[in-house]
């Protein structure tokens, strides 16, 4: 593997370990801070749903955004800010932290996945590269879950601080190895696209997370409507691929809901 690919694997290891600590402990942490349990669940459910939606938003306009390296640095910086803000007592600031965590996490995950695949031209090499990437992803997740398991229930400030340090170290790694990271030219890049998209996604996500009790049911209704729409396509076009896709959606999301 090239130096560029190894740097990406190393950064993904620490980012996943840090990211998973907040995702899996958020409900207990917020509940320990005095929020009602049903609201804590609504916030985390909305955050996971908005993570998927913002990923779609980034994907649609990705070719108009800055270089992959720049996006990774910005995503890491926003993640660091999120881990700082989550420790504030204000409800609004905590919701802003969750919002930045969602927006930055989706941007980082999409960008690094595309950048990893760009290192390989042949399908066999890409398959091996993705195997290594998935292995690192799972190792990072394991250490993140282990950190939660070893922490007192609901008291995760020290864990969030450790995650903050890991994210800062990853950002420094990108800064010091910027010239070694694979560069992919973007001829359609527009300097105004990223600030506008970032502001729009952040503002919309913040409003939806702030009113998470409403957002949670909105996401459930959206999910049901999507399932019915796919079912309609499957029946009208008589395409079994739609039914297979529908089965996968229900199988993967049923337990979560």
Describe the protein's architecture and organization.
- The chain is mainly α and 257 residues long.
- It is built from 9 helices and no strands.
- It is globular, with a radius of gyration of 19 Å.
- The mean pLDDT is 84.
Tags for this entry?
globular, single chain, mainly alpha, 257 residues
Question: What is the element layout, followed by pairings?
Answer:
Elements: H1 3-32, H2 37-60, H3 68-85, H4 91-117, H5 123-149, H6 157-176, H7 193-210, H8 212-237, H9 240-254
Helix pairs in contact: 1-2, 1-4, 1-5, 1-6, 2-4, 2-7, 2-8, 3-4, 3-6, 4-7, 7-8, 8-9
Order of helices and strands: HHHHHHHHH
Q: How many β strands by DSSP?
A: 0
Q: What is the averaged pLDDT score?
A: 84
What structural category do the secondary elements indicate?
A: mainly alpha
Characterize the largest beta sheet: strand count, sense, and whether it forms a barrel.
none
Using only C-alpha atoms, the radius of gyration works out to 19 Å
- For the termini, the CA-CA separation is 39 Å
Which consecutive residue ranges, at least 5 long each, have pLDDT under 50?
none
Helical content class: over 70%
Shape: globular
Share in β-strands: under 5%
Number of distinct helices: 9
Summarize this structure briefly.
This protein is mostly helical and 257 residues long. The protein has helices at 3-32, 37-60, 68-85, 91-117, 123-149, 157-176, 193-210, 212-237, 240-254.
